[in-house]
Amino acid sequence: MRLSALLIAGALLAAANPADAASYYMSPTGSDSAAGTLASPWKSYKRAQSALKPGDTLFARGGTYLKCAGGCGSAWTKSGTATAPITFRNYPGETPVFDGGKVGTTPGQGYFLILDAIAHLHIKGLKVTKWCSQWGDGAIEPEDGSHDILLEGNHFVDNGCDKLDHHIYVAGDPTPWNITIRGNYFGKVSGAAIHCYNTASEVGCAKNLVIENNFFDVDAGQTADSGPGYDGVILRHKLTDVTVRHNTFVNSDIDIGGAVTKVKIHNNVCYASNGHHCLSTWGFNKAELVEHHNLWHATDGTPFSGWSKSTTRNNIYTNPLFEGGSLTTHKLSTSSPAIDKADPASSVPNDYDGQTRPMGSAPDMGADEVR
Ligand SMILES: [Ca+2]
Ligand SMILES: [Ca+2]
Questions:
Q1: Ligand 1: distance of its center to the CA of 6 in Å?
Q2: Which residues surround ligand 1, an ion (CB under 5 A)?
Q3: pLDDT tens-digit profile of 89-113?
Q4: Ligand 1 mean position to 45 CA, how many Å?
Q5: Assign residue 246 a region: left if phi > 0, alpha if psi is -120 to 50, beta otherwise?
Q6: Can you spell out the DSSP letters for 212-264?
Q7: Looking only at Cα atoms, what is the longest distance across the chain?
Q8: Which ligand does the CA of 364 lie closest to?
Q9: Of 157, 192, 333, 352, whose CB is crowded by the most CB atoms within 10 A?
Q10: How far apart are CA 302 and CA 264, in angstroms?
């Protein structure tokens, strides 16, 4: 009895921690001729990738990794497996900054990571800034058959050089699938925070795209070209099975157009001013959108373009009352009307802050659970 219990425990341990899973390290002060250990880290993820196997984790130490300092604008080359994903993440408590060093606004200066037919990759806790790709690209781009990709807890700010240049771009042939974008901060961008797009003649944009617990603040601090047109999420042609839930949007629209199917939008908070909308739909079969339990607030009273207010969807159409009256925080004040108003059946465990959700009688709308 005792032996079989030990065998079971051993089997569980082996399943959770593949015996050959390894941790590797990189640092802005490292060297690609080093060993990749904590004491002797590499300098570039390009070097690190050559060693990565399913189950491995690459930790990036804090500091700034400048464009092309040992590999940039690179295709990510290594996939994990369903039971042993590869993780590329920040070293706990530290902030690695991947800086594309863009100069001016001429597109095509470079992207951070292209994921081409990559599977079971988790990217967490990185700061991604000043990348300037080109038409229809993003700083990070899961494309062409990539699947089971998790982008979580990253900080995106000041990427892009024109309105077709985004923080994250999802698309391709074959259609990417099982893409989860969770708990990220999306600051200033020239295009959209997340753009899912393909032309009508191409295969598809994505299947099973989940966007949850993110804070979209894409218009913050823009002095030039500010105003309508800066989107949080753009969902376009042949995207199917997409869930947008528990996000907070400040002057960052959700824009749906084309042959998009099976869209679920719930438990979000949106504040729109200066002519922004919260939700825009065009050329889109509205029967494909299930929308409920959201707070949609526009200072001009029109949170929608192409969509309609309703009294039957458990939405709220008043000011969400952010903490301290700020428009640069995801945090709700303790008197927010969004508190305890989210749909528990459509919720996500833990909030943007990592706090337990729900607190109180029900989950709060938006990325922040307050009480
Ligand atoms: Ca609550
Ligand atoms: Ca919270």
A1: 41
A2: 340, 358-360, 364
A3: 999 999 999 999 998 888 888 889 9
A4: 40
A5: left
A6: ES-EE-TTTT--SS-STT-EEEEE-TT-EEEEEES-EEES-EEEEESS-EEEE
A7: 71
A8: 1
A9: 192
A10: 21
